[in-house]
Amino acid sequence: MRINVRFAGAGGQGVILASVLLAKGYGLGEDYNIAQTQSYGPEARGGACKAEVVVSDEEIDYMKVDGVDVFVALNQVGYDKYIGDVKDDAIVLINSTLVESDDPKHYRIQATARAEEMGKPFVVNIIALGALTRLMPKVHYPAVEEEIRNNFSASIASINLDAYKMGYDIMDQDLKELGYQTGFGEHSRF
Amino acid sequence: MEKTKDTSEQVVLQGNEACTKGALYAGCRFFAGYPITPSTEIIEMMSGEMQKAGGAFIQMEDEIGSACAIIGARWGGSKAMTATSGPGYTLMQEAIGFAAVTETPIVIVNVQRGGPSTGQPTLSSQQDIYQARYGSHGDYGIIVLAPSSVQEMYDFTVRAFELAEQFRTPVILLADEVVGHMREKITIHKGVQSFQKPKQKYSVSPSVDFFKGNHTTVEGQLHDELGRRIGHLADRSGEFIEQITRKIDDHVDMIADISTYCMEDADVAIVAYGSVARPSLNAVKKARGIKDDRILPKFRMVTDLFRRGVTETIKTDYSHLKVGLVKINTVWPFPEKLLRQATEHVQMVIVPEMNVGKYCREVERVLSDKKVIPMPKCGGNIHTPKELLDEILEEVGVDE
User: Is B278 in Cβ contact with A61 (below 8 Å)?
Assistant: First the structure.
């Protein structure tokens, strides 16, 4: 079993952090091997940024994604640049505040809008991660929660935990409306 | 964090962080450095960890200063390390020569990025493979290790300290951006590793029992065992050079390390080092039709969440293609004997590397009876398994 996950967005949106938290959720919370890699430009903010997580129950040889099973796009540039090699039946989650796409199979979350409503624009990535956790098989909510706690000081962690829960709950609601159990499988070849 | 044993634990770390942890476990208590992408995390983490471990950390004015500082620290009694990337590594060459001639056991980490010059700060390369061996002027021996996983970043750092002490030489950990920035789940140890004292003395320069007091000269000019200059004596100078190169060249068996996969019956071998060994292994598995991406039955039984095949189907079975991988862990000194043994029955060798094709020349020299095919790749991206597989198929003459 090998899941190839790719995150794309702008530098500063927390693309890499989201991928690290997901990797730790699988690697430490569950008994999986993970390989997390990233690619970004020399800028501190802005510029295209991509992060990848490979999750496997076997030893991971090739550490980059090899065909994308799960794709999360936080901005339009990232979406346009990296949608190309995403598999037809992949889970695609877009930050629908900033990404425009008319593909009905995409999952959507108003991550930027929700973060701004909270007055904490920096939690865009964590809202998206919450939604992604709901979509992904076998990555348990508490495992990621634990990593959020480990990653931030108490006050910032609590903001992020709220954001994480919000993303998760929104997606949970969406899936219920669709009658899906998880992001995988209901609308594809299975 | 899950504990497996009392002294070891499983953690998810970045390659650079694993290198730092490895250095601490090896007993490194002095770090001097100047931050540079993609090695900055080592310096950042060291700045905190050194204090906690009771060691010293200095952010130096530049990389020349950093390398000189660790040489001084080692003579002062601390195990010492610095970390940098291409441009900084170039600046360190003067000090590396000084460390080689004074036989100072230090560890230098070079997390390679694209060059030349400032090059590609955030992208990967293996362009410094020759600089790691021949970067400083004059003749000297040196040991260079190339990790290809986060676990190896940790293990090889520990090994680097051990080899440095044993042979009294600078040891280079030649990583690259991919392994430096990658995160994986690894096993690390608590406390400090106790190394066995070398049974034999391999160095020429003065032996110093640190902390016990000893008058000596640490001399950059060629010198005798008391540190006295011998540069004006041609015979003895020649001997000295021979000794500081042969202490490594004559003990390759104690240093050299390779890993092999599927080589028992292989006709074609990929010879790779560093991060490139990873897609190479994937290509070997694909070529042999080993489907590691399949869904395991246990998942099907446990949950239906995994019923969607998160797989990549291998369309053609090339299992008749007997391909293997030789991963070179100690790139310098070149593991001639081990490579010859491993590739004894092989007709063709493919050498993928993230540069214009440098290390393959060394492979060609050693495997002169075989067809050696360089597979260079520049630009910052690592070879993909598909590229490697296509190359194998093309060379073997299989139509897709």
Answer: yes
